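Hello Y.,

Per our agreement to keep a running log of every chain we model this quarter, I'm adding this entry. I've kept the format consistent with earlier entries: sequence first, then predicted structure.
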Amino acid sequence: MDSQTSLPSPYRLGFIGGGKLAGSVLRGLVRAKYCAPSAILVSEPNEAARRILEHELGISGTTANAEVAEQAGIILIGVKPAVVLPALAEIAPQLEGKLVISLAAGVRIQNLEKIAAAHFMRAMTNTPSTVRRAATALAKGGRTTNHELSVARELFSAVGVVVEVTEDQIDAVTALAGSGPAFVYTVIEALARGGEKMGLGWDVALTLATQTVLGAAKLATETKLSPDELRKMVVTPGGTTAAGLAAMEKLKTSEGLIAAVEAAAKRSSEMARENN
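Predicted structure for the entry above:
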């Protein structure tokens, strides 16, 4: 749905970087009809990646970050963390007073605000943005206005669920929501491998595993029941589910997933120090 925000710039949205995460957000926004594709400008040095976005989505592309900074009303930064600060330094004058949302892990707002007089925010989202099922956390900066926060919330609500956190919680969000899809895909693959081991064909096992995870997540979302309550709806004492859960407990499956989130969060914190 189009925002009521009036932006005088030629392009409503500008993306600096059109890689995996930024590309996912772009696809989700176009699918959601958040704004006309012609109102989106992306700068991407990789010609093949840029052409794919242009042809697939109908958006405009450029190789010049400065063009995005000059012509877009809201700017999203989707380059690799190590590139964020140098890229912003080159276009700092054109960013003054604009809402700039960084999608990068491990780059703190205070360091962004040292580079340019923009109104910086951070948005940690994930690749399910493509299908409008993202989990996004917003952290506002020292210059963020309430109106800008509302604009950012509307933007990311078009591609999924949005929560607001403080920036010191972003590393945890990076680990849980940003890296989380990869952990879930590992779970799906493991479930399918289990089905295959027990005699199912791989395609059948993968279809069932994927739909099982999707259905379980949707049930959790719609019922608002706790994981424990939902688990009890499936378990019968002495039954098949109980046997499976016992095997998971023996192999410390839950502890492994907790450790994965912890390790990813620690790495995000390390990246912040590296990009200081």
